[in-house]
Write a structure and sequence with these properties.
With 203 residues, this protein is mainly β. The protein has no helices and 22 strands. The protein has a 15-stranded mixed sheet that branches. Strands 2-5-8-10-12-15-18 form a seven-stranded parallel sheet, with no helix packed on it.
C-alpha cells in the first residue's frame, strides 16, 4: 500500500503502474476483474478517488501533473477506457464507463465539482414495436483546454472542442464541431462563440 491509497486487487493479470512522485489522499483502487491496466503519472495528485473495476480489459490512465477527485466505475462490461490528459484538474466527478466505450479528457482541462460523465445510460430503452434497442453507448471526448462548470452532465456521444466552456448545470447530449464556444442549457446549445478561458482565480 502506497501512503494515502488502498489498493485491493483480487483479479488476475492486472497491471497497476504508479509513479513514485504521485501523491494520494484518502483514495482507493478496487479491482476484481482481470487484465486491467491502471496508470498514474508523475506529479499526479489523487484526493478522495474511488476506482471500482470489476470487469475485464479496462484501462485507466491519469497523466502527469493532474489533480483529481473522482469516482470511476467500470462494472459489468469489458474493455472500457478512461484517459485524463496532462495537467487536467477534476474537482469532483463520477466517471461511468460502460459497454466497451471510452471517456477521453484532454490536456489542461478544468473540471469542476459534482459532475457526471458517462458513456452509457446503464439500462436499455427499447422500441416497443420492433424490440430494437434505441440507446446504444457512445464515447465521450473532451478536447484540450476545456472548462466544465459545476453540476454539469456529459452524456454518451458528447464531444466538446478545445478552448470551450460548459456552463454550470448544463446537460451535454451530443457532439459539437466548433472550438471556443460556451455551451449552456439542458440540453446544451451554443450560447456564445469565439471564446477561450484562463485558469487563474478571480475575485
Amino acid at each position: 500500500m502506497t501512503d494515502g491509497i488502498n489498493v485491493r486487487d483480487s483479479g488476475v493479470g492486472n497491471l497497476i503502474s504508479i509513479s513514485n512522485s504521485a501523491e494520494f489522499i484518502n483514495s482507493e483502487i478496487i479491482i476484481s476483474g482481470s487484465n486491467n491496466h491502471v496508470s498514474i503519472g508523475p506529479g499526479a495528485v489523487l484526493s478522495g478517488v474511488r476506482m471500482q473495476i470489476s470487469s475485464n480489459g479496462n484501462v485507466v490512465e491519469i497523466a502527469s501533473a493532474c489533480r483529481v477527485t473522482a469516482q470511476v466505475i467500470m462494472k459489468l462490461t469489458d474493455n472500457n477506457r478512461l484517459n485524463i490528459g496532462h495537467g487536467t484538474t477534476v474537482g469532483g466527478c463520477n466517471f461511468i464507463c460502460g459497454e466497451g466505450r471510452s471517456i477521453v479528457i484532454g490536456k489542461d482541462c478544468m473540471l469542476a465539482w459534482n459532475l457526471e460523465i458517462r458513456t452509457t445510460d446503464s439500462h436499455a430503452i427499447v422500441d416497443a414495436a420492433s424490440g430494437a434497442r434505441i440507446n446504444p453507448a457512445k464515447d465521450v471526448i473532451v478536447d484540450d483546454h476545456v472548462w466544465v462548470g459545476a453540476h454539469a452532465t456529459l452524456l454518451k456521444g458528447t464531444h466538446i472542442r478545445r478552448n470551450s466552456v460548459v456552463s454550470m448545470r448544463s446537460v451535454v447530449t451530443h457532439a459539437f464541431g466548433e472550438e471556443g464556444v460556451v455551451l449552456g442549457g439542458s440540453p446544451a446549445r451554443i450560447i456564445r462563440s469565439g471564446v477561450t478561458w484562463e485558469r487563474p482565480l478571480l475575485g
